[in-house]
Amino acid sequence: MSAEYRPADIDDEQSLRVIARALELGVRMFDTADVYGPFTNERLVGQALRGQADDVVISTKAGLVIDDATGQSVPRGDPAHIRAACDASLIRLGVDVIDLYYLHRVDPAVPLEVSWDAMADLVLAGKVRALGLSEVTPGQLASAHGIHPVAAVQSELSLWTRGPLSEVVGWCEAKARCSSPTPRSDAAT
C-alpha cells in the first residue's frame, strides 16, 4: 500500500478502508517492512491497527535500505542498524512489541551470524516475539537457527520463481517435524 505497489489513484484513506475490511473478513496477519515507502507503509499499518495489536499478528522487516545515490534497495545487516531500525519500526507501528521481525536480506558485508545475533538480542530485550528470514538458502537457515529459532521464512514464490520449493520449503518441513532448539542460553542475563 506504499510506493511501487500502490497505484497513483489510491490514497491512504482508501488503503485504511482496505485494512479495515480485511479485519472484518478475518485477516489477522499484517506484513510490512521499513523499506516499503520507505517507512510510510509501517505508519499506515500502525494507524490502521491502532488499538487492535493484541488481536492481530504484525510482522515487519529490517535489513534493506534505499541507497541515496542509486535509489536501489541494498542489504544492511550491521547490529547498530538492526537495533535502530527495530526501535523506529516500533514507533511507526505504534506497538510495544513486534510479533514477527524479519531480516529482509542477508548483508554480504556482515556475517549472517552477527546480524542474527543482533536480532536475537531484540527478542531478549522484549522488543520482538519471533524472528524470520527473507530470501535465504537452507545453509543460511541452519546457521541462523543454530543461534536462535527461525519462526518464519519468506521467499518469493511464483510461476516464474520456483527455487524455494526445491530447497527452502524442504528445510522448513524438516524443521517442523523436529523440535526447535532452545533460544540462546544467555536469556537470563
Could you characterize the architecture of this molecule?
With 189 residues, the protein is α/β, with parallel strands linked by helices. The chain is built from seven helices and seven strands. The protein has one domain: NADP-dependent oxidoreductase domain (TIM Barrel), CATH 3.20.20. Helix 2 links the parallel strand 1 and strand 2. The longest helix is centred in the middle third of the chain and has 15 residues, at 79-93. It is globular and about 45 Å long. The model has no long low-confidence stretch (mean pLDDT 89).
Search tags:
189 residues; alpha/beta; TIM Barrel; five-stranded parallel β-sheet; two-stranded antiparallel ribbon; 7 helices; 7 strands; 39% helix
Give helix and strand order, one letter per element, not per position.
Answer: HEHEEEHEHEHEHH
CATH classification, class level: Alpha Beta
Structural class: alpha/beta
- The share of residues in helices is 25-40%
User: What's the tally of helices?
Assistant: 7
Report the radius of gyration as a whole number of Å: 17 Å
Strand order of the largest sheet: 1-2-5-6-7
Q: Do you know the CATH topology?
A: TIM Barrel
Low-confidence stretches: none
How many strands appear in the DSSP assignment?
Answer: 7
Mean pLDDT: 89
Q: What's the CATH H-level superfamily name?
A: NADP-dependent oxidoreductase domain
Q: What percent strand?
A: 15-25%
| CATH architecture field | Alpha-Beta Barrel
The assembly state of the depicted protein chains is single chain
Main β sheet profile: 5 strands, parallel
Question: First CA to last CA: what distance?
Answer: 40 Å
- Total domain count: 1
The rough form would be described as globular
